Amino acid sequence: MAEFIDLVLLAMLALTALRVIFLKDLFAVVMLFGIYSFLSALIFVSLDAVDVAFTEASVGAGISTVLMLGTLALTGRTEKENKRSSVLPLLVVCVTGAALIYGTLDMPPFGHPDNPVHEHVAPRYIEESPKEVGLPNMVTSVLASYRGFDTLGETVVVFSAAIGVLALLGVRRREDKNTPESGLKAHLVLRSVAKSVIPLVILFALYVQFHGDFGPGGGFQAGVIAAAAFILYALVFGLPMAFKVIKPKFLQMMAAAGVLLYASVGLFSMAKGGLFLDYNQLADDPIAGQHYGIIIIELGVGITVFAVMLSIFYAFGSQAERVNKP
């Protein structure tokens, strides 16, 4: 039954991808991309990768869809007709695909018990993680402790993405008082529902942030969920109101503060005589030190991801308002 479900989901993924290729309506393409992300999340759930599924659903189907819709507000929803020959692009895609397939021929069989990951890496984490880190969620142990330096690099990449977007677009405030108010203030039902939902979304984001040690979650997912709550607020009540709640300059400082908070844990552990991001140095008990370190760095990740996602939305949203100004 599990294999049948995987095959059905893969077939739906393939059909969605093929439909995206032939569509000219970019709004429909964005919606199909969201469906594609949800299908991918279901596949990850079927593979017992719940943390990855959580991230795919929140980032791929959530924030990415909103940002692509913001891009459509700047570019238009209809793809321009390409009069050039498509033979060369098709040839490049075929050659690249063939090279990728050829590269997989040397890979060990999927799921085989003699694969190196099952012989060395996985047993090491399964057997030693409870003793060395002491967290029930082994995924958090790997990402935040064993691969803490890699996760710091990923956080820096997210921060760099915000710098790139803000450098290209920036956040433009309303300059003309005659410009109509943004948002959906005339929809009273929607405003009432948003007021009820937004606090619950923020509460759920806090749960995901501080429950990542025990179940699926962590800073990346929590930051995206919290940003989605404020994006919903901006969509319903307008960007000017959102600017009053959280100013763009404050978000930029938050994004940098999260990265600095993460890196400061490593510097503090070095000052205590350990290695960079050696959480054992944070307390007399190594297990307690691991807990403290993971909580702090996950908080840094959550702050940075939240600030970056909301800053990027501010940039796209403010540009769209300026373009659509009468």
In short:
With 326 residues, the chain is mainly alpha-helical. The chain has helices at 2-22, 26-46, 50-75, 87-103, 116-132, 138-146, 148-168, 188-210, 219-237, 239-245, 248-271, 286-323. The protein folds into two domains: 1-81, NADH-ubiquinone/plastoquinone oxidoreductase chain 6, subunit NuoJ (Four Helix Bundle (Hemerythrin (Met), subunit A), Up-down Bundle), CATH 1.20.120.1200; 135-326, no CATH class.
Architecture overview:
The protein has 326 residues and is an all-alpha fold. The chain folds into 2 domains: 1-81, NADH-ubiquinone/plastoquinone oxidoreductase chain 6, subunit NuoJ (Four Helix Bundle (Hemerythrin (Met), subunit A)); 135-326, no CATH class. The protein is built from 12 helices and no strands. Belongs to the CPA3 antiporters (TC 2.A.63) subunit B family.
Task: Fill in the keyword field for this structure.
12 helices; 326 residues; 2 domains; 75% helix; transmembrane; mainly alpha; Four Helix Bundle (Hemerythrin (Met), subunit A); globular
Total helical elements: 12
Major β-sheet, in short?
A: none
Summing up helix and strand content along with how strands pair, one would put the structural category as mainly alpha
N- to C-terminal distance: 56 Å
Q: Percent helix among the residues?
A: over 70%
Q: Unreliable stretches, pLDDT < 50, 5 or more residues?
A: 175-180
Kindly report the average pLDDT value. Answer: 86
Task: Write down the Rg.
Answer: 23 Å
- State the shape: globular
- Give the tally of β-strands: 0
Strand content of the residues, in percent? Answer: under 5%
Structurally, how many domains make up the residues?
2
> What's the helix-strand series?
HHHHHHHHHHHH
Family: Belongs to the CPA3 antiporters (TC 2.A.63) subunit B family.
Organism: Saccharobesus litoralis
Keywords: Cell membrane, Membrane, Transmembrane, Transmembrane helix
Pfam family, one: MbhE
